[in-house]
Every structure is written in structure tokens, then in C-alpha cells.
Amino acid sequence: MKDTQTLEKKISLRSELYELYKDNLGFEIKPLKGGMNEEQSEIGFSFNHIDKNNPLETYSFILVLIEKTYSVKNCTPSLTEMERLLTELNKTNDLSSFVIQVRRNFMSLLKN
């Protein structure tokens, strides 16, 4: 019984954090294909609140994982730094840092 309650609390907390990120940061993650035990997995990442003049504009990419190697498809808008970021991700496996860097690169597009 206690394990069930603990699991329910964790799920509830994750849901709250997800909604916080989605509503306040405009950050959303969606599994698109595959899973933990699949040969290929795809996860969609989208960001809003990048452009203060157009906060609902969506910036997005799909992260593909095949046999422990990451790649990206459908990056909108495209990023010139994506290959470098992917190389670093594949070296370090630091997904959170990768996502932060992609978001920063999307933001830097507005400065040009």
C-alpha cells in the first residue's frame, strides 16, 4: 500500500512539474516512436516563449535515438550549431545540457 502511495505521489509531482514547464517556460516533450526497449526511439521537443514579440511561436525538433546514438530531424527553425551540439551529446550523454543549449541557440536566432 505504501509503495503505491509513493508511486502516486511521484507521478503527481512529475505531472505538476511538467505542467509548470509547459505553462511557464513553454517547454513540452512528447514521445513519438519506440520506447526504452525499442531499437529506435523518437521524442519531440517544442519550445514557446522564445520570442517575446510572438510568445506562441513554436520552435521544435525531434530527437532520434538508435543504438545509443542520437540524431535530430525536423529542427524548426534549423540551427547551424546542431551538428556540434549533437557531437557533444553523443560524447557526454548529457541530455538536459543539450536541450538547454538548443533552446539558447533558438533564442540567439532572434538576435541576428
From TrEMBL:
Pfam families: Spindle_Spc25. The keyword Glycosyltransferase does not apply. GO terms for biological process: cell division; chromosome segregation. Keywords: Cell cycle, Cell division, Centromere, Chromosome, Coiled coil, Kinetochore, Mitosis, Nucleus. Coiled coil: none annotated. Belongs to the SPC25 family. Component of the NDC80 complex, which is composed of ndc80, cdca1, spbc24 and spbc25. The NDC80 complex interacts with mis12 and zwint. The keyword Cytoplasm does not apply. It is found in: Chromosome, Centromere; Nucleus; Chromosome, Centromere, Kinetochore. InterPro entries: Spc25, Spc25_C. The gene is AVEN_51414_1. One of its GO terms (cellular component) is nucleus. Its main location: nucleus. This is Kinetochore protein SPC25. Residues 39-106 form the Chromosome segregation protein Spc25 C-terminal domain. Acts as a component of the essential kinetochore-associated NDC80 complex, which is required for chromosome segregation and spindle checkpoint activity.
